[in-house]
Amino acid sequence: MLTNKNNQPTAWVKMDAAWSRNMVVGALLLLGSSLGIAGENTLPLHNLSLSVSLPAALGIAVRDIGWQVQAQDTSHKTQRLAGLFPAVSLPAGKYEVSLVIGAYEEHKVVEVAAANVTTVPFTPSVGRLRVSSDAEDTNWSLSAVSADTKVAKVLMQREDSQQIDTILPAGDYEMLASRGNGISHTHRLRITPGGINRASIQMPGGKVSLIATLNNGPALRPMSWTVYRLDGGRKAIAAPKRHSANLLVSPGHYEAVATLNGQERRRAFTVLTDTSNRIVVAMD
Predict the structure, then answer these.
(1) Neighbouring-strand partners of residue 143
(2) φ, ψ for residue 275, nearest 5 deg
(3) Vertex 35, ends 29 and 37: CA angle to 5°?
(4) Angstrom distances, CA of residue 34 to CA of 27, 31, 235
């Protein structure tokens, strides 16, 4: 420390100390301002905060929770978000917020202010559906059924899949599984909030090869077939337009009607589970 002859700090040292104090005070004010505690005009980092509350038992992955935020005047780009608690900064205005999880959708209209945070919570009444088939090439159609009007609304369709695993609104449903020609199974089910509904569907079938011949050889001419299932009433299930065709049908009793040049030939046959059936019809 520099001192004078009376052992007192010199004026230069006093000025340096005052300058140091001012620097410390200035730094603290700057830090306080950056933390949003020094002024009243500090804006939030976001002004729309979304959240969704889901039953843990359903095991819904965060990546499967989708959001869409669309301005009602369509003047702003649609915001697409994901996760349990997304947040976004938007111009002030009215927006439609959409939550999508599996086959579940919910929409809310909210007013967003520039300087305040608008919170929008969602609490969906949903459950999980897990249904599987014994066939890899199963086609699925899922419909919601109204208990009052019995009207079915198709929610989802999927082809060539062995299983369905999706989130659905709580309610009553009808699942149609089909494959091949006329092989189908209808399953009625109820989804409960927070519950998991499991089902296993069996759809056995047999293979049928249709062959029309002329002079002991393939007909190789324009012709038509109609295949009827005879169990529970006569019902057409297939109508191939070539001299040969391969079908997959459920076990049961059938009749094949071949038509060539106005001439009909008929052949009745029975199909068992996991069998191959060769149906040859001579058109001579």
Answers:
(1) 154, 174
(2) -120, 160
(3) 70
(4) 11, 5, 78
Say how far apart CA 166 and CA 122 lie, in whole Å.
19
What's this model's pTM, rounded to 2 decimal places? 0.72
CA 60 to chain centre: 12
State how far the Cα of 163 lies from the Cα of 168, in Å rounded to an integer: 15
Interatomic CA distance for residues 54 and 60, integer angstroms: 8
Task: Please compute Rg for the chain using Cα positions.
Answer: 36
Q: Write out the two tokens for 86.
A: 């997304």
For residue 22, the model assigns a pLDDT of 39
Identify the CA nearest to 134 among candidates 62, 76, 183, 195. 183
Give per-10-residue mean pLDDT for the chain (284 aa): 45 37 38 40 79 96 96 84 96 95 95 94 97 94 76 84 95 94 92 95 94 94 95 94 95 97 95 96 94
- pLDDT number for residue 178: 95
Smallest CA-to-CA distance from 103 within 158, 161, 149 is with 158
CA–CA distance, 220 with 242 (Å, rounded to integer): 8
Q: Answer yes or no: are the C-beta atoms of 250 and 277 closer than 8 Å.
A: no
CA distance 11 to 246: 108
Comparing CA positions, the residue from 69, 117, 116, 77 lying closest to residue 94 is 69
- Residue 140 zone, left/alpha/beta (φ > 0; ψ -120 to 50; rest): beta
Given the structure tokens 């999880």, which residue do they identify?
101
| Residue 183: half-sphere exposure toward Cβ, Cα within 13 Å | 24
Residue 42, pLDDT score:
54
Identify any residues that bridge with 54 across adjacent strands, giving them in sequence order. Answer: none
CA dihedral 254, 255, 258, 262 (to 10 degrees): -150
Residues constituting the chain: 284
Strands 48-52 and 118-122: parallel
